[in-house]
From TrEMBL:
<keyword id="KW-0808">Transferase</keyword>
<dbReference type="Pfam" id="PF00483">
    <property type="entry name" value="NTP_transferase"/>
</dbReference>
<dbReference type="InterPro" id="IPR029044">
    <property type="entry name" value="Nucleotide-diphossugar_trans"/>
</dbReference>
<dbReference type="GO" id="GO:0016779">
    <property type="term" value="F:nucleotidyltransferase activity"/>
</dbReference>
<dbReference type="InterPro" id="IPR005835">
    <property type="entry name" value="NTP_transferase_dom"/>
</dbReference>
<protein>
    <submittedName>
        <fullName>Phosphocholine cytidylyltransferase family protein</fullName>
    </submittedName>
</protein>
<dbReference type="InterPro" id="IPR050065">
    <property type="entry name" value="GlmU-like"/>
</dbReference>
<feature type="domain" description="Nucleotidyl transferase">
    <location>
        <begin position="3"/>
        <end position="174"/>
    </location>
</feature>
<keyword id="KW-0548">Nucleotidyltransferase</keyword>
Length: 250
């Protein structure tokens, strides 16, 4: 199993940082510190702590910034990085971005979005949940109060995910998918096919819509509740401020 990070997004709501950097390289340490850790740093650190020594990173927008830091990141975290180019990063949504990593999925991965600040306990929870035939396990926050923007999930006992979408009444949801998934190698081909179907239907769809496509086909997508932990998806400057508060705890 290896690590996989989706880091192709532009994150325009985080300008001026993202005028020159992809979202995954926006600093989440003290403001003004040019040597600050980034979301990518934190994620690579998590992967290393659970024993993953190989990581693939899907890059697109401002990808040259990731290429420039590749060797330093490898040395710092003791991992080997493979960068995968997404040629439509500024045109299409992330269903296509994950599909670009379809060959990597065949190794089995822990997937992390490049804008999610979270503790290593999330990866540990996913790894601990393996072993009962699950092929895809989503990290689920069942504690947070949900609103309209969250990627909401409905789970049925013994049947896994029934629905995953932002377009849902928060009161109906079991919890929020936080952007971290364990994907076993056995799921790679079916997931890749579902992702292709998804972005061919509408290139603006999310990879989570690919998960829904799998569910609609009868594939069981499981979840692992992460407990009461601090994490944030960084979409805007308010999120970034929260991310800085959280990052300094880990």
């Amino acid at each position: 199993m290896i690590g996989l990070v989706l880091a192709a997004g532009a994150g325009r709501r985080l300008r001026p940082y993202t005028d020159t950097l992809p979202k995954a390289l926006v600093p989440v340490g003290p403001e003004g510190d040019e040597e600050s850790l980034t979301v990518l740093d934190l994620t690579l650190g998590n992967f290393a702590r659970v024993g993953l020594t190989e990581v693939a990173v899907v890059v697109g927008y401002r990808k040259e910034a990731v290429y420039a830091r590749k060797e330093a990141l490898e040395a710092k975290y003791g991992v080997t990085l493979t960068l995968i180019d997404n040629d439509k990063a500024e045109e299409w949504n992330n269903a296509y971005s994950l599909w670009c990593a379809r060959e990597v999925l065949k190794k089995g991965v822990i997937l992390a979005n490049g804008d999610t600040v979270h503790p290593v306990s999330v990866e540990q929870t996913l790894l601990a949940a393996r072993g009962n035939g699950q092929k895809i396990i989503l990290a689920l926050d069942t504690v947070k109060q949900l609103a309209d923007e969250e990627m909401k999930v409905v789970v049925a006992d013994g049947k896994g995910v029934q629905k995953i979408t932002k377009l849902m009444d928060p009161a109906e949801a079991t919890g929020e998918y936080i952007g971290v998934t364990l994907i076993e190698a056995e799921a790679a081909e079916e997931l890749a096919d579902a992702l292709r179907t998804t972005f061919e239907r509408d290139p603006d769809l999310y990879y989570e819509d690919g998960y829904q496509e799998l569910v609609n086909r009868g594939f069981t997508v499981d979840v692992a509740p992460i407990g009461d932990v601090q994490w944030v998806e960084i979409d805007n400057h308010d999120d970034l401020a929260k991310g800085r508060t959280i990052a300094c705890q880990y």
